[in-house]
Write a structure and sequence with these properties.
mainly alpha; three-stranded antiparallel beta sheet; 3 strands; single chain
Length: about 120
């Protein structure tokens, strides 16, 4: 398996940006690009572990709801929904809105609550 630091350029896999640039420079056409390889399995496992923090106890949910800005909370809500954890997504958003009195900044709050029902 490749690491998250690997590049694929013209079929060549390398972890060196210099090698990737050299491979690109050797090409006749300029429409080829180095593509960053991400380990999707590792990303999914890390996301699931982060979601587990919300399920472990209410302290993490409270801390995020009370100390993060609206946009940051929306990112966590989207992550929890992507993990099919609709109940914790709704609880996080509800607690955040109640704490910050910012319902106007979360127009999708009703949808989040409906998904949890």
């Amino acid at each position: 398996m490749h690491s998250t630091h690997d590049f694929i350029v013209n079929g060549v896999i390398t972890s060196s940006p210099d090698v990737a640039r050299a491979e690109l420079a050797g090409e006749e056409t300029d429409n080829r690009k180095a593509v960053k390889v991400f380990d999707l399995h590792a990303i999914c496992e890390a996301s699931d572990a982060l979601g587990g923090l919300f399920r472990a106890d209410g302290e993490f949910t409270e801390a995020i709801a009370e100390h993060c800005a609206c946009g940051e909370v929306d990112v966590f809500v989207a992550l929890l929904q992507a993990l099919s954890d609709y109940d914790n997504a709704a609880a996080l958003l509800s607690h955040h809105i109640e704490t910050d009195q910012c319902e106007a900044k979360h127009p999708n709050a009703a949808e989040v609550q409906a998904a949890a029902a």
